[in-house]
Specification:
- It is elongated, with a radius of gyration of 13 Å.
- The longest helix is centred in the middle third of the chain and has 19 residues.
- It is built from three helices and no strands.
- It has 64 residues and is mainly alpha-helical.
Length: 64
């Protein structure tokens, strides 16, 4: 699997302003979080992206 696209992914662009986050309801936030977790789970099971997924998850947990 080639995973060059990973270099261009930045979920932070999804919430560019606080106002865009405030427009989302709880279900939308939960769906988005679920999508991120599913994607990360897929990446951690692929040999080529396993290290990336582990590092990404560790860095994410630093923000609480």
């Amino acid at each position: 699997m080639k995973a060059e696209f990973i270099n261009s992914i930045n979920e932070g662009l999804f919430f560019t302003k606080k106002a865009s986050l405030e427009k989302m309801d709880l279900e939308q936030c939960a769906n988005y979080a679920f999508l991120i977790l599913c994607s990360l789970n897929i990446l951690r099971h692929e040999k080529e992206t396993m290290a990336f997924a582990s590092d990404y998850a560790s860095k994410t947990l630093l923000y609480g």
